[in-house]
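Morning, I've got a small favour to ask if you have a moment. You're getting the sequence in one-letter code plus the fold written as tokens. Thanks so much in advance, here it is:

===
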Amino acid sequence: MFLTISTTGTPELPATDLGFLLHKHPEKAQRFSTAHGTAHVFYPEATAERCTAALLLEVDPVALARRAKGRAKGRGGAPDAALAQYVNDRPYAASSLLSVALGSVFGSALRGVCAARPDRAEAALPLRIEVPAMPARGGADLVRRLFGPLGWSTVEALPVPLDERFPEWGDSRYVRLALEGELRLADALRQLYVLLPVLDDSKHYWVSPDEVDKLLRAGEGWLAGHPEQELITSRYLARRRVLTRQAAERLELVRLAEADDLVVEDVDNAVDESADTEETPVPLAVRRREAILRVLRESGASRVLDLGCGQGQLVQALLKDVRFGEIVGVDVSARALAAAERRLGLGRLGARQAARVSLTQGSLTYTDKRLTGYDAAVLSEVVEHVDPPRLPALEYAVFGSARPGTVIVTTPNVEYNVRWETLPAGRARHGDHRFEWTRAEFRGWASAVAGRHGYTVVFEPVGPDDPEVGPPTQMGVFTRVDGARGGPAPEDARQHEDARPQDRAPEDARGEHTGHSEHTGRTDHTGRTGDGEHTGRTDHTGRTRHTEQKKQAKAA
């Protein structure tokens, strides 16, 4: 297996700096032992104007065959045919063997570490990378689809004929790859590290759960937004659905964090690992759920969205009532959704019950046409976790774009806080609440929203209605006026719509994205779990497809 990396330079910035970046001296030929042979690094040319580093992986076919013995059929690219372990392309064509050698021999360069030339390590270099023989299951077109969006100005993938003497035989599955462009060396090496085994569609070793971490480290900065992300993830993880699903969840969080200029930890924080986030039997939480269920039943809703489902309490209650034929819970936090999955026991549900519930990951501040067509939507203890400037985006996503027939919104009544003996004066009920409305403020907001988007709204108390300060929770029930059209999207909502990340649900969304935390701590990118009343809600609440819709889409 053979690979070359070339760059050009000037007297001020000589091309031989490539030796510093790769941590391999241009005047030496070096050897490194690998599990399947020997890797050689040498420089065919090394001048200030042009420098080329070559990696030659000399594979021991006997060692490769012996390591394959006893491996379960199909695992890690193990051959199916009896003779395939002795007669194959592994010693000659770039594959996961070369990818592993890249990580081993150029490990520091992959991480972008260079103490001698830190500025050069962070700068884009004019690079040309050539791989003379590379398997490409999908042909030259797939090679261009994978490397084209990554900043390369030229992507050459020339098919290798089966036999030049017999052109009528056609092309083999191999290509000659040449990449040219200005990229950081670390970025280029990480792309090769991931995409070589992806194009081969096979690995020479067993794919374990830690491969997800390897993929995300190597894919940092480019994989989350790649148009072929699903294919790359599936092939790199040997089509293991559980691992592919985990990678998709974590990449979705990366996209959401990048869209709002946050770090992943500030988005995926609905579950506080330092405290027990399971709901305790709080009477107000029970009353809130009962009030929501009553309104949903009275509305005649069958298809219900729980926007900000958290850890799954409301979804669980809805699932127990057969009147609700389709229940969709959505939340941004993968940990909260995993907790909801455990609560609902999705893996143990029968086929009929499982078909009624779908759970997925997403953000409520981004519009999505797949949220349309539902009878009702619930935002229970959500809005107070949203920064006020972002409320118009939430408003338009729910009332202007999705437009369910009924929308139920519950939120704390700040006037009632004086009745909480353990709550210090002037403090909100939860550390992540961006505001808490008085009854007049909530009614003013709700009435304005209803007027802008063609709804009527009525207000109901939840919990004991104190004659002086009102109820602890206030609830607004919005009903869409038939024939009314939604109001125009405010500027903030349009910006979020234009900037929204990919919102495709993972292939197996149910079972990984789960549930609703009834009064259990919603977050708006930065929330933390709170007391027994609010623990685990999120503002990022996207959408999902009905199970049958997903089946139909796959069939199509």
Summary: The longest helix spans residues 241-259. The longest strand covers residues 171-183.
